[in-house]
Amino acid sequence: MENARPTEAPHSAKDVTDHVGYRLKRAHAALRSAMDKALRAHELTVPQYSCLEILALRPDLSNAELARATFVTRQSMNVVLRGLQDAGLTTRPDTVDHGRARPVRLTDEGRRRLRAAQASVYAVEARMVRALPGQRLAELLEDFDRIAQALDE
Fold first, then answer.
1. Which domain holds residue 110?
2. Record's superkingdom (predicted)?
3. Which of 13, 91, 112, 113 could cross-link with 18 by S-S, CB 3.0 to 4.6 Å?
4. Longest dimension (CA), the chain
5. For 116-143, what is the mean pLDDT?
């Protein structure tokens, strides 16, 4: 292994802090920190908030579907749903007529808490967007889509 050639970088960079992955992770960490802070006032975590947002768009999703939509494991989603249900923000039946998936719905309190939290989260996103020069938002979103597609192949 001593004679192994050094791995060539995917693009010119003076060090790892100039790599795309590092910068993307740094931006993600900053976003997560800002969202954690904003959601604390609403007694929500980022995964709980994400779950409420998805359920507002698509009620009756299963645990597995919610996990995929919010980028967490099914096991983690069980914990998230238990917390939301204990707080009275979601409901799901104890049993179902067929299959094992128990559809999840927002309660009235869940919709109220989501609306309140959205204002705080959208303020965080507005701070991000204001940092972009000119009309770069559309291009940035397209770039993110291209990156995800390239990695999904």
1. 20-152
2. Bacteria
3. 13
4. 65
5. 93
pLDDT (tens digit per residue) in 11-43: 676 788 888 899 999 999 999 999 999 999 999
Give the whole-angstrom CA distance, residue 137 versus residue 151.
Answer: 21
Q: At 96, is the secondary structure helix, strand, or coil? A: coil
Tell me whether residue 139 is exposed, middle or buried, using C-beta atoms within 10 angstroms of its C-beta: 0 to 12, 13 to 18, 19 or more: exposed
CATH of the domain at 40: 1.10.10.10
Supply the angle between the helices 63-70 and 46-57 in degrees, to the nearest 10: 110
Query: Higher-confidence residue: 134 or 60?
Result: 60
Which of 1-15, 38-52, 132-146 is least confident? 1-15
- CA nearest neighbour of 56 among 116, 102, 8, 99: 116
Read off the pTM: 0.84
The length of the chain in residues reads 153
Domain count along the chain: 1
- pLDDT tens readout for residues 67-86: 999 999 999 999 999 999 99
Q: How far apart are CA 115 and CA 101, in angstroms?
A: 27
Cβ(52)–Cβ(39) under 8 Å?
A: no
